[in-house]
Design goal:
Structural class: alpha/beta
CATH superfamily of the largest domain: Probable inorganic polyphosphate/atp-NAD kinase, domain 1
Strand content: 15-25%
Order of helices and strands: EHHEHEHEHEHEHEHEHEEHEEHEHEHEE
Helix content: 25-40%
Shape: elongated
Radius of gyration: 21 Å
Number of strands: 16
CATH class of the largest domain: Alpha Beta
Largest sheet: 9 strands, mixed
Number of domains: 2
CATH topology of the largest domain: Rossmann fold
């Protein structure tokens, strides 16, 4: 019988759709703004991969939304290893749950959360290993947070399920060390990224499924970025009546700097006729803007870049671009061509032929967005690059 440890941080990622750029210490505020918990949904997406083997799997987990509900909903055999008494779960619950699972000698701890959750897991694993003079147990993260800088996460929830499936079916899986990274969210909300390493954990490594730690540093070739920006600015001038949604990232930030308008490095901004319409908008604010655009028959376009080292274009750091927003954009005349992806060729080369990833949480939409899409890599210079749904 395979013993699968499961921990879900039910409030992970809450701040994403409401433009809080993180959930640390912001749970109540995010809920008040209308944020909906997604961590359990993403955990279930990973667990569904294992349904064919559920007769051979016992899930050791925590009561309620920290694991029990999702596992039982899918019909898995469940053993409770830890009971939280807190109506709103806390970091200490995660750490106590890890300690309980480790005493059960589970085969792996699968957890859903963000970088903050990874830090809690790492802290508990290290404490247990020191106290018991034992080797670290493998862990694996299901990406569910607003920020995923750590190298202990699978690239998508389905990928996390695939890795566990390999272990359940006794395939050879290499173990390696993955860095646990996190950033200061208070600075993050000011547009400042300061990532720090908080340790490492042992993870099952399968390069198709485990993400690389996000590439850091600024773009080195300003001339290329200027060419990319000029190409998009030409499009804005050609379609000056259209509304442009500008996604997060350093490449899009360069575009905004060339326009001489205020930019939200880690958020979503709105631009029309080369002028700022709104800064740092939430998902609901984007949606209201789309409804207004529909009334006046205004075309809405989207400019995004990819996360360096990982290749995600949707589902990481831009939850404001929800499935309903993306469906609206591609339902207009022009379809997927209403989405402009911008990146340097160096950034694409660094992916080592891995596809760009659309992980919106809507599998049908991810399929629609899959296939080859044009990536603007310079002035009047594009390359066709594959986009894949989670696998």
């Amino acid at each position: 019988m395979f013993k699968l440890g499961l921990i879900i941080n039910p409030v992970a990622g809450l701040g994403g759709s409401v433009a809080l750029k993180g959930s640390d210490d912001m749970t109540l505020h995010a809920l008040a703004l209308g944020a909906e918990p997604k961590a359990n949904i993403r955990a279930q997406t990973a667990l569904k991969v294992l349904l064919a083997y559920k007769e051979n799997i016992t899930i050791y987990t925590v009561n309620g939304q920290m694991g029990e509900q999702s596992a039982l909903a899918l019909g898995f055999e469940v053993a409770l290893s830890y009971q939280t008494q807190n109506e709103q779960t806390q970091a200490n619950d995660t750490e106590q749950a890890v300690a309980a699972l480790l005493t059960q000698q589970v085969d792996i701890i699968l957890f859903a959360g963000g970088d903050g959750t990874a830090r809690n897991i790492a802290k508990a694993v290290e404490r247990f290993a020191l106290k018991n003079a034992s080797q670290q147990l493998p862990v694996l993260g299901i990406p569910a947070g607003c920020k995923i800088h750590s190298g202990v996460y699978a690239i998508t929830p389905i990928a996390a399920g695939r890795i566990v499936e390999m272990m359940v079916t006794k395939q050879l899986v290499t173990l390696t060390e993955g860095d646990v990274m996190d950033i200061d969210e208070s600075l993050f909300r000011q547009g400042i990224v300061k990532a720090k390493r908080f340790g490492e954990m042992q993870i099952p490594s399968e390069l198709r499924y485990v993400q690389a730690v996000k590439s850091g540093g600024k773009e080195s070739d300003e001339l290329v970025l200027q060419d990319i920006a000029e190409d998009i600015i030409d499009k804005m001038r050609e379609h000056h009546d259209d509304l442009f949604i500008i996604g997060s990232g350093s490449t899009t930030a360069f575009l905004m700097a060339e326009l001489s308008v205020k930019n939200t490095l880690l958020g979503v901004d709105l631009v029309q006729d080369e002028a700022l319409v709104a800064n740092d908008v939430s998902e609901s604010q984007v949606w209201q803007q789309l409804l207004q655009a529909k009334q006046i028959e205004q075309t809405v376009r989207l400019v995004i870049t990819l996360i360096g080292g990982q290749g995600h274009i949707f589902g990481r750091g831009n939850q404001q671009l929800s499935p309903r927003v993306l469906r609206y954009i591609i339902a207009q005349r022009g379809g997927k061509e209403n989405i402009s992806i911008i990146a340097t060729k160096a950034k694409l080369t660094a992916l080592e032929n891995r596809p760009l990833i659309s992980d919106t949480g809507d599998s049908q939409l991810d399929q629609v967005l899959s296939g080859f899409m044009a990536v603007v890599t310079g002035y009047k210079d594009q390359v066709l690059y594959p986009v894949s749904s989670p696998q």
